[in-house]
Amino acid sequence: MARHWIIQYTEGSRQSHQTKHTGGRRGKTSLQRLDEVLISILKNPAQAALEHWTGTKLHSWLLEQLLSS
């Protein structure tokens, strides 16, 4: 795999060795939307009527918010 990247780098431009989406299902929400929601809620858990976050609480809240919109 590394050899493939080296060959692409030496023969091509910067764009030739950037990672591209090659398959699989696209996300249900955009990364920009996820960033907006995640950053604001992590900074202020009170928006979700919580005092603090745990991994489980955050996961459940994100699923609820992102799948309902």
Outline the fold blueprint.
Elements lengths: L1 H10 L19 H13 L11 H14 L1
Describe the structure.
54% of the residues lie in helices and 0% in strands. The chain is mostly helical. The longest helix is centred in the last third of the chain and has 14 residues, at 55-68.
Name a few traits of the molecule:
69 residues, 3 helices, mainly alpha, elongated
Mean pLDDT: 77
Total of helices: 3
Largest sheet: none
Main structural class: mainly alpha
Quaternary structure of the protein: single chain
CA-atom Rg in angstroms = 19 Å
Proportion of strand residues: under 5%
Residue stretches low in confidence (pLDDT < 50, at least 5 long) are: none
> What overall geometry do the principal axes of the alpha carbons give?
elongated
Number of strands: 0
- Amount of helix: 40-55%
**SSE order in H/E notation?**
HHH
Quick summary:
The protein is 54% helix and 0% strand.
